[in-house]
What we know:
binds 6-O-phosphoryl inosine monophosphate, binds guanosine-5'-diphosphate, Adenylosuccinate Synthetase, Chain A, domain 3, 12 helices, single chain, binds magnesium ion, Adenylosuccinate Synthetase, subunit A, domain 2, 4-stranded mixed beta sheet, alpha/beta
Amino acid sequence: MPATVIIGGQWGDEGKGRVVDYHARNCSIIARYSAGTNAGHTIVNDRGHFALHLVPAGIFYGDKTCVIGKGVVVEPVGLLKELAMLGERGVDTSRLLISDRANVVMPWHPVIDRLDEAFRGEHAIGTTGTGTGPAFTDKVSRNGVRVIDLITPELLAAKLEMVLPYKNRVITELYGGPALDFDTVLREYRAFGEQLAPHVADVDTIVQDAHDAGDRILLEGAQGALLDLDSGTYPYVTSSVPASVAAGASIGIGLGPTAIERVVGVYKAYQTRVGNGPMPTELFGEDADRLRDPAAAQGQGEYGTTTGRSRRCGWFDGVLARYTARLNGVNSVALTRLDVLSQFDSVKVCISYERNGDRVNTLPAALQHQYEVQPVYEELPGWRSDVSGVRSFGDLPANARAFVRRVEQLIGAPVDMISVGPAREQVIVTHDIFGTEL
Ligand code: GDP
Ligand code: IMO
Ligand code: MG
């Protein structure tokens, strides 16, 4: 059975977690394939309100296998906390599998993440400080510690003997920080390895066997395509290898690209961005505040799930939406947080940019500052009514339907799902992508 990838079409936090939570019912395996604890996926369902950073959003269904693929960097302290939190709240995590090939976020990674950011000064990226970027850097430079090392005491000791002196020199001699102690790190990380060992498996083979057997596989993206290392607003991007774009799913989980049939692009009905970097449609002042803290407060306001930072807000950017849809091969769209726009008399969508008098319809490679391009807006009439209880497209106000259709046109792929509130059931399904009765 072909696999489905769910990706973020903007700068992350589009609502991927809630879309995965919804579709997981129709799948056997739900897998994360990239990133680390920099991701924060919110799920609101009959079990409550959850923020997940590493565990796939399919964990709430008792009969599903949830997988952390080799493309993820596993932060053991955060993962163990997440498993404990889920356990305390009655969620069974025994069906979670972690790839033995995944790289591990070690204690020097968050330290170096923060020191690197301080060193960058006014050019800081605004990272999550979780050590995710430095862990991917070490993976690529072949200094990484992998899960198989973590759970094998002699391999862990050998890795630490090689890597820790090098990392301590960076921390102490480049940055003047305190060195990490070999014995403490070895003891603590051996203990983490022991606790995680029951979940560790050759995930590639398990997923490949399931695929061969005809099982449905749902691949849960993290971040958004505009944060992608190769295609995003570099250098204000994340460091995940494989990438945050859909093609990365194939690498990060160990299935060939022909296994992927469907790419669901999750887009918010407006833009948000947390961290630094250009955002052409960014708003300041009252409209930004209204997007960030909607009076109806259906969900949380726009504050980072991982860091609690305030998210920058702006109007829907059709130029970037089209750009990410094409990059990912999006053939189905989930449009989220439509309810948040109900408070405006009119809403804007960016349909093009202007640069030195010319029209620009894609993301320029050298865009460092958003004032280098001016968004060209189309203004659409608002609908000024609460849509959070609407469950069918025909019951949306006509102006809300017109907005959805315009966004669909700009993205260039069909909107199959619209969400109107944070809870699992607050969705309008216009086309059931798995073709089963709902
Ligand atoms: P992710 O990283 O893509 O999974 O998204 P996050 O969980 O970081 O951020 C999305 C936020 O929007 C969370 O607080 C969700 O609970 C919330 N949310 C998702 N869909 C909707 C929606 O349709 N309406 C409202 N009001 N909130 C939503
Ligand atoms: P989810 O999966 C939003 C952003 C950070 C920063 C940049 C680099 O929840 O959508 P990093 O710590 O990755 O080196 O930071 O990337 N970032 C995200 N923003 N949602 C995310 O994940 C993000 N993951 C990283 O804010 O700007
Ligand atoms: Mg998030």
